[in-house]
């Protein structure tokens, strides 16, 4: 079973209170997943493996968005100074990552690219919506709502995520994913949604969202699809708050009905967002 190793992801401890246990468990899970990757799936996509840089030392440029504003200094000059015969800048498949299928589908990104915490969180949110008996479009929106966090960018993740999925889902699902980011900061007692206590822990008691978030939340409240986005916030629970394991296969049919998988594979269909999916396929490319 391809997803067998994933079940333990929903048992990951609180990363704030138990960081060492979290790191150990993620390493164990990655090891189990690697066993799957080295089996049938990777063999099927072996012809796609990039061999142009085989045998060479590959240097990785960290994306600026990941280090600007941190104590890390601009690494570009130091990396360029390391270039010598037998050393190149990373392009194509990174041997440290699982090889993606030649025509990637949505669940391939869950299996081979998204971070462990994002995978567990999305599965948990979608499962809670499914258990509550909501329409499949709501379950699909919950499964995708934090997709940008998986292997692309965290800042404005709702907006990025909505753009990534827009060609493949209904307009309503994309709208709901975009606007959940703003609505997450504002309570709606009519559906039992309160400001998350986790946000107090994450951002501090005095944090106030910026003006564009306040504006977009107000606009969303008056929209005909408001409740679709609001329901995402209701089921936007952090996976370490609930520990029951989840089988990802339960979403296969829902994905088939509500996510238009391109025949060429995500990233290769020529859509306006194909570059976003390619960035996740080859996240360490230098250019």
State the shape.
Answer: globular
First-residue to last-residue Cα separation? 36 Å
The helix-strand sequence is HHEHHEHHHHHHHHHHH
Classified in CATH, the superfamily of the largest domain is: Hypothetical protein af1432
Helix/strand class: mainly alpha
What is the CATH class of the largest domain?
A: Mainly Alpha
- The helical percent reads 40-55%
Q: Main beta sheet: strand number and arrangement?
A: 2 strands, parallel
Strand order of the largest sheet: 1-2
- Tell me the Rg in angstroms: 20 Å
Query: What fraction of residues sit in β-strands?
Result: under 5%
Mean pLDDT: 85
Number of helices: 15
Corresponding CATH architecture of the largest domain: Orthogonal Bundle
CATH topology grouping of the largest domain:
Hypothetical protein af1432
How many domains comprise the coordinates?
A: 2
Structure description:
- It contains 15 helices and two strands.
- It has helices at residues 19-37, 40-44, 64-67, 76-81, 106-112, 116-131, 136-144, 147-151, 157-165, 171-183, 197-203, 211-221, 226-234, 252-258, 274-281, and strands at 57-59, 87-89.
- It is globular and about 65 Å long.
- Mean pLDDT is 85; it is low at 1-16 and 26-49.
């Amino acid at each position: 079973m391809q997803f067998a190793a994933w079940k333990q992801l929903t048992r990951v401890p609180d990363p704030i209170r138990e960081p060492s246990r979290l790191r150990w468990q993620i390493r164990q899970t990655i090891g189990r997943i690697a066993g799957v990757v080295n089996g049938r799936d990777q063999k099927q996509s072996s012809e796609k493996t990039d061999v142009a840089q085989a045998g060479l030392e590959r240097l990785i440029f960290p994306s600026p968005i990941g280090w600007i504003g941190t104590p890390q200094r601009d690494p570009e000059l130091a990396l360029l100074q390391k270039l010598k015969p037998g050393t190149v800048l990373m392009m194509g498949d990174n041997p440290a990552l699982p090889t993606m299928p030649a025509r990637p589908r949505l669940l391939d990104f869950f299996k081979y690219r998204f971070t462990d915490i994002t995978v567990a969180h999305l599965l948990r949110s979608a499962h809670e919506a499914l258990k509550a008996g909501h329409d499949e479009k709501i379950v699909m929106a919950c499964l995708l709502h934090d997709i940008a966090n998986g292997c692309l960018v965290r800042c404005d993740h709702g907006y990025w995520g909505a753009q990534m999925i827009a060609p493949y889902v209904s307009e309503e699902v994309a709208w709901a994913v975009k606007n959940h980011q703003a609505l997450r900061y504002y309570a709606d007692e009519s559906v039992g949604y309160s400001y998350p206590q986790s946000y107090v822990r994450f951002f501090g008691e005095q944090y106030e969202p910026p003006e564009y978030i306040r504006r977009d939340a107000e606009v969303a409240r008056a929209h005909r699809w408001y409740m679709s986005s609001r329901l995402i916030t209701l089921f936007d629970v952090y996976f370490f708050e609930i520990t029951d394991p989840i089988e990802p296969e339960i979403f296969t049919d829902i994905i088939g009905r509500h996510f238009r998988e391109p025949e060429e594979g995500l990233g290769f269909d020529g859509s306006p967002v194909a570059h976003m999916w390619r960035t996740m396929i080859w996240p360490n490319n230098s250019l």
